[in-house]
Amino acid sequence: MNKISLSDGEWKLMNILWEKSPLTILGLTEAARPETGWTKATVNMMINRLVEKGAVRIDSSERTKRVHPLLDRDDAVVQEAKSTLERIKTGGLGLLISTMAQDCRLSDEEIDELARILKEGSKN
After folding, report:
1. 100 and 61 in contact (C-beta within 8 Å)?
2. Are 42 and 33 in contact (CB under 8 A)?
3. Model-level pTM greater than 0.85?
4. What's the CATH code, domain 8-69?
């Protein structure tokens, strides 16, 4: 798994692509516009950056180019989580989980999943 660091804006585009790929640049712009207000030129520039990073590819075999994600969503989330934990070491994992639980208002299902993950982690 290659380490690919995504900016906040790139995460927005990747989340759309993971949900609805492949998309044209215009389709991606329209999907992102309600949240971002970005123009086609902005989206195109960001897609070019994602291509350079190896996160997406552009299929030019059809009349209209289509953008496909190359980066797996789960891999990206794992990379981001590890990077975040490395940056905030000083507070400790307990503080991170406590903050997440309080500020994110975890559902009962999410709490059960977190408990399961922690139990599995303690066995390893």
Report:
1. no
2. no
3. no
4. 1.10.10.10
